[in-house]
Amino acid sequence: VTLDQNRVLSGRAQAIVVNSGIANACVGDQGMKDAIDMAEAAAISLDLEPDLVLPASTGLIGVELPMALIRNGVKNIAMTYEGGHDLARAILTTDKRPKEVAVSFQVEDKTFVLGGIAKGSGMIHPNMATMLGFLATDAGVDSGFLQDSLTYAVNRSFNMITVDGDTSTNDTVIILANGAAGGEQISNGTAGSESFREALLQVCVYLAKEIARDGEGATKLIQVDVEGAKSENDARIAAKAVASSTLVKSAVHGGDPNWGRIIAALGYSGAELDENLIDLYINEVKIMEDGKPIPFFKESVEVAMSGESVAIRLDLKLESGAA
Which of 30, 153, 194, 202 has the greatest number of CB atoms lying within 10 Å of its CB? Predict the structure, then answer.
């Protein structure tokens, strides 16, 4: 992570090399040396400048990388149509399945593709935690706009998921744009800027949900939406508080529509509230209106909560902030 943070300052990178199983963290100076060596080995195999290769690692903390194995492995790097799927599988640790997606987006008369893969199922909590995400597009994108767009998308996707409340080392999300499809470079305010950002957000949200769905021990996917908040930041902290609540998770796991736990988590979130305005929906069944419970069929909510996905929606009815 430290090496990559320095290398991306140039706004240029051409390859990512990843190892799974060992985090290359908490091993002293050897960790940085091995990260540099891993990037150099990949650069030799790909005939690139070493500074244009970004290394990433995931796995056990406190164990040194098996550099002999890595040097032998990178010799087999090759460009193939199956490579993306193979990479999605190769980076897994405790995940049960690979996470990959690709979408197309249009800029005037030209079509571009944006794809991504990710791994992560444990030690997942807002601020990404121990997860890796790698994205690429054949569009040409200005490096500054690329960074701004990635930050925008990550803050609305990977940084909003939680599995176990724990974070760890090595969290990394990288996007590469090679311009191979041609066309005008996309930058802030150009014709394709909004289409690109929408595609990037779509990919990141999909991958983030797949990480949450594949969480260690997870049986359900809980989606929390907050609208009508005083600001977007208030909506974010409110949604995070509800999604991270152990009591909310246990209620959903047990199929118990104990909505008081949701409101309690909202209350301690720190978001600005007027308790006399709040509306609450569980799987679009209205549970609370203007801060008061309304009659609902408990059985219908229990049935809805028995599925693999449960949607919680809170309308604070203050301003237009949403997350």
Answer: 153
